Amino acid sequence: MSTETQDLARGKRIEANCKKIWGANKDFDFDVESDDYEFYFCYVREDFGDMFGRLLAATFSYRGLEGAWNELDRMLRHMARHVEQGESTTKNIGRLAMSKKT
């Protein structure tokens, strides 16, 4: 699978998990930031069309762009599983952020 195809699949997975967590009828903004172009972090916020909502999720700083996007994908996958199982994501957020299991 090409890198472009993998990136597209990851993006669709990230968006689908956000809709599971925060609502299927919402739109989301996904972005990545870096101060030094070595370490990156990704974040999610709600997109209202003419403005953005509060921060919904963010990764820690990761070396490399791919690491940050992969971590966001991992975090949201875990959060979506908890929502599907009827568990609170806010109650488990610390454990989810520190967990490295998939």
UniProtKB/TrEMBL annotation:
This is Uncharacterized protein. It comes from Lophiotrema nucula.
